[in-house]
Amino acid sequence: MARTIGFVGLGNMGGPMAANLVKAGHSVRGFDLAPASLDAARDAGIAVAASALEAVEGADAVVTMLPAGRHVIDVWTQLAGALPAGTLLIDSSTIDVESARKAHALANARGCLSVDAPVSGGTGGARAGTLTFMAGGSGDAFAAAEPLLKVMGKNVFHCGEAGAGQAAKICNNMILGISMIGVCEAFALGEKLGLSHEALYDVASVSSGQCWSLTTYCPVPGPVPTSPANTGYKPGFAAALMLKDLRLAQAAAIAAGASTPLGAEAAQIYGLFDGLGHGGEDFSAIIHMLRGQGQGQQ
Ligand code: NAD
């Protein structure tokens, strides 16, 4: 069924996600603060509005894809006051669990359905419509959102009540940040011991060290030809975004009283890497710093 969708936040992720909704036959009106994002959206067949409120006029579903919790709260506060009861709001930004729960409360107080549905899969997944969505919200809200999420993504999971999508996202990415550092340390140690990259890869990729950071995003060039290490560590998944997610995980761990010492260490290590000016590189480039090459040379 074709739906009328308001889309706020048409950046690197939101732009192609909204374009996929248009391709699937939905009517999409979008808004972004950045003129360049609006131009790209127009080229992709998205009707462009002059404000977030104008974008959602007459919409039965709204999607937001914004940088951080404060942007989502600002936009949802404006929109919730204007949308009729029963409207579906989906936030796919990666934000802190507390803000996600506040956003649900804003929507639910107006009788709107709400879902926090952060994604993994990056800009490539956004363009290809192959994102993974991790959703939190009531069963009714998830059922309403699922057909739209399936247009923009390949795997769609209902993880639990309000905030559960964000919780799943930061827990997953905390595993990823820690495991990438572990894989990088192993390659750096192997180099000092005279072990070739190929030999370590061949053994670890079929042994108990096997993980996504090794077999998909291998941080040294060669063993996995499609990993960012083979293209000068161009992201991929930028180290600054990894740092953002690790800090969200730490904020959640402190609020919940969870002990996450390796997550805390990973946040420190990526913080240092970002502070040295490498936030725009793929997060696997952390191997340079772990080898003691702070300026990022191989
Ligand atoms: P981006 O900076 O490219 O896009 C965000 C857009 O939001 C910008 O175009 C900005 O102008 C717009 N914006 C900010 N405040 C606004 C407002 N009040 N009203 C309207 N528009 C506003 O960022 P992105 O890469 O698209 O990421 C969006 C979200 O997705 C972030 O939360 C990010 O952490 C998450 N995410 C990104 C990736 C990735 O690989 N880029 C992967 C997974 C998740």
UniProtKB/TrEMBL annotation:
Organism name: Methylobacterium persicinum
Annotated GO MF terms: 3-hydroxyisobutyrate dehydrogenase activity
Catalytic activity: 3-hydroxy-2-methylpropanoate + NAD(+) = 2-methyl-3-oxopropanoate + NADH + H(+)
Gene3D superfamilies in the cross-refs: N-(1-d-carboxylethyl)-l-norvaline Dehydrogenase, domain 2, NAD(P)-binding Rossmann-like Domain
UniProt protein name: 3-hydroxyisobutyrate dehydrogenase
Protein family membership: Belongs to the HIBADH-related family.
Pathway recorded for this protein: Amino-acid degradation; L-valine degradation
Highest taxon above the source species: Bacteria
EC number: 1.1.1.31
Residues of the 3-hydroxyisobutyrate dehydrogenase-like NAD-binding domain: 163-290
